[in-house]
C-alpha cells in the first residue's frame, strides 16, 4: 500500500487534534512487536487500548506523562487500526515521524543533526525533544546511540514512543526535570524556547528571557572537551545577557549560523558553544545563509540542501567566503553591543534571476566601491517616451528608458552592465522612481571601450560556433529521418532565430 496515501488518510482522520494524535501514539505503542494480532484485537475491543498501553509501559519500565487520555474514542481507535492493517512495522515509524516532525524547523534541524557528528560512543544530552526530529535523525542509522533527554510535556511521550518503535534499546529519556547530577556528556543538543504564543510574541520587548541561562545550564553537564549545539529564535539571541557577554569574552562561542526565516518567527539560529576556548584569534565564525529554506506555505517547509550542505562544509573551517562566512573579531562584536546575528556582519543576498539561476551579492563591498549613481551618468525617461536608447525593466513593475551620457559612459558598456547579474540584482531593489540610485562602477571611458571591443569579438565567435552547431544538429536530424524512410515527408526548419526547430509537414 502507498505509505503517503495512508499518511494522508490518518492525518485527515486525526485532524491534528492532540487527543486523537495520542490515540495514534497509543495504538502504535501497543501493536509494536505484535502488529497483526493486536490490530485485530483492538478493532474488536477498542476500549482495551488504555489498559494495554499502561500494562506494556509498566512492563518496559516506561514512565509516560499524565497526558495519556483517560477517555478513548472507540470509533477513532477502530479507524486508525483499519488504516494500519496493510503497512509494516517499519512503516509505523515513518507514519509517526511524518505526523510529529516539526517541518517548519527543517533547515535548522537538518544542519544541527549534521554538524553534531554523533558517534555511537558519545554520551548525548538532548534538552527539549522537539517532536522527535533530532532523535529520529540520530538513531536512524545508529539505534545503539546513548541519548538522555528530558521535557515533561507531550513531546516527551512522542519521543519515547518514537525511540521504542525504532528499537533503540540503548536510549534513555529521563522523565524528570533533570537527569542525574553526577553524569557528564560529550555533547548537548538543545532547542531553546521553542514554544511561543501570541502574548509572548507581542510582549517580547518587555520580556526578560535569557536563552544563555539554558545554554549555561546545559553546558555545565558537558565534559571539558565537549560542546553544545543550540537552536534558537533570532530575536532571543539578540537580547542583553551578562552570561552571553561572558561567553563571548572567554571565547566559548565558536560559531553562529543564521538560516532562513522566510515563514515567520521560527527557529533560525544555531550556536556552537565549546566547553573550553579553542579559537586563538579572538573571533567568532559567523555564517549567514538566508536562502537555506524553501517553503510553499506556513506549515510545510523544505530544506534547500544545496545551501544547507554548504553551511555544513564551512562551519568548522578557517576560510572566509565573501557574502557567506566571516571570522568576526571580539572587538567588532563589542562595538556592535555584543550582537551575535551573522546578518549584522555578513552582508549577503541571494536573488533569483532566471530559472535555475540565482546570484549572491555582497552589497557591503558594493557600497564601499567607487561608483556613480545611474542618474549621474544617464538621463532616465518614462516608458514609451522615445527619448532613451536603452530599455530597462524595473523590478517586474514597469519599464524605463535610459539615455547614456557619452562623457562618462559608453552606451553598449552601460547596457551590458545593466543586464549583467550585478545590474539585474540591483534592479530588484528599485522601482521606476528610485532606479536612478542604482550603482555603476566607475571605470575610465577608455577601459570601457577596450572591454566592449573584446566582448564583441568573443560574442561573435560564440555566435558563429552556435550557428555551426545548429546547422550540424539539423543535418544529423535530417539524416535520422531519412534513415527512417520519412525524410521526404517533411523538412526541419528554423521558423525564427532562437526558437527550437519546428517540424513542417510537406503534403505536396
Automatic annotation (TrEMBL):
Q: According to its UniProt record, what is one Pfam family this protein matches?
A: N6_Mtase
Segments forming domain DNA methylase adenine-specific: 240-350
GO MF terms, alphabetically ordered: DNA binding; N-methyltransferase activity
Q: What is this protein called?
A: DNA methylase adenine-specific domain-containing protein
Look up and give the organism this protein is from. Answer: Companilactobacillus nodensis DSM 19682 = JCM 14932 = NBRC 107160
Amino acid at each position: 500500500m502507498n505509505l503517503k496515501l495512508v499518511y494522508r488518510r490518518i492525518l485527515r482522520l486525526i485532524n491534528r487534534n492532540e487527543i486523537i494524535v495520542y490515540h495514534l501514539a497509543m495504538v502504535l505503542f501497543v501493536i509494536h512487536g505484535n502488529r497483526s494480532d493486536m490490530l485485530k484485537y483492538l478493532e474488536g475491543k477498542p476500549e482495551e487500548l488504555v489498559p494495554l498501553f499502561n500494562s506494556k509501559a509498566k512492563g518496559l519500565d516506561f514512565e509516560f506523562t499524565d497526558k495519556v487520555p483517560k477517555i478513548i474514542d472507540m470509533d477513532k481507535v477502530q479507524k486508525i487500526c483499519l488504516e494500519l492493517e496493510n503497512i509494516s512495522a517499519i512503516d509505523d515509524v515513518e507514519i509517526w515521524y511524518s505526523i510529529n516532525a516539526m517541518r517548519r524547523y527543517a533547515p535548522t534541524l537538518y544542519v544541527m543533526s549534521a554538524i553534531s557528528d554523533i558517534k555511537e560512543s558519545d554520551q548525548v544530552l538532548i534538552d527539549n525533544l522537539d517532536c522527535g526530529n533530532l532523535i529520529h535523525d540520530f538513531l536512524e542509522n545508529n539505534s545503539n546511540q546513548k541519548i538522555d533527554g528530558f521535557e515533561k510535556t507531550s513531546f516527551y511521550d512522542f519521543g519515547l514512543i518514537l525511540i521504542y518503535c525504532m528499537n533503540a534499546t540503548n536510549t534513555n529519556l529521563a522523565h524528570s526535570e533533570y537527569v542525574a547530577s553526577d553524569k557528564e556528556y560529550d555533547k548537548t543538543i538543545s532547542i531553546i524556547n521553542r514554544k511561543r504564543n501570541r502574548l509572548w510574541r507581542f510582549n517580547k520587548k518587555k520580556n526578560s528571557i535569557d536563552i544563555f541561562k539554558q545554554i549555561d545550564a546545559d553546558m555545565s553537564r558537558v565534559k571539558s572537551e565537549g560542546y553544545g549545539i543550540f537552536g534558537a529564535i533570532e530575536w532571543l539571541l539578540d537580547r542583553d545577557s551578562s552570561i552571553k557577554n561572558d561567553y563571548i569574552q572567554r571565547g566559548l562561542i565558536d560559531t553562529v549560523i543564521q538560516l532562513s526565516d522566510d515563514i515567520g518567527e521560527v527557529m533560525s539560529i544555531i550556536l556552537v558553544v565549546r566547553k573550553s576556548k579553542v579559537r586563538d584569534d579572538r573571533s567568532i565564525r559567523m555564517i549567514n545563509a538566508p536562502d537555506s529554506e524553501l517553503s510553499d506555505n506556513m506549515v510545510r517547509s523544505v530544506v534547500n540542501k544545496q545551501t544547507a550542505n554548504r553551511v555544513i562544509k564551512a562551519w568548522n573551517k578557517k576560510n572566509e567566503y565573501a557574502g557567506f562566512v566571516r571570522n568576526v573579531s571580539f572587538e567588532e562584536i563589542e562595538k556592535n553591543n555584543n550582537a551575535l546575528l551573522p546578518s549584522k556582519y555578513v552582508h549577503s543576498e541571494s536573488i533569483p534571476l532566471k530559472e535555475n539561476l540565482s546570484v549572491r551579492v555582497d552589497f557591503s563591498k558594493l557600497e564601499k566601491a567607487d561608483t556613480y549613481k545611474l542618474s549621474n551618468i544617464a538621463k532616465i525617461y518614462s516608458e514609451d517616451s522615445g527619448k532613451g536608447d536603452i530599455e530597462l525593466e524595473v523590478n517586474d513593475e514597469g519599464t524605463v528608458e535610459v539615455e547614456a551620457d557619452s562623457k562618462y559612459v559608453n552606451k553598449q558598456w552601460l547596457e551590458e552592465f545593466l543586464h549583467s547579474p550585478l545590474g539585474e540584482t540591483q534592479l530588484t531593489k528599485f522601482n521606476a522612481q528610485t532606479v536612478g540610485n542604482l550603482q555603476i562602477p566607475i571605470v575610465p571611458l577608455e577601459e570601457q571601450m577596450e572591454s566592449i571591443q573584446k566582448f564583441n569579438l568573443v560574442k561573435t565567435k560564440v555566435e558563429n560556433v552556435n550557428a555551426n552547431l545548429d546547422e550540424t544538429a539539423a543535418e544529423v536530424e535530417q539524416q535520422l529521418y531519412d534513415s527512417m524512410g520519412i525524410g521526404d515527408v517533411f523538412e526541419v526548419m528554423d521558423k525564427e532565430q532562437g526558437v527550437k526547430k519546428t517540424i513542417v509537414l510537406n503534403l505536396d
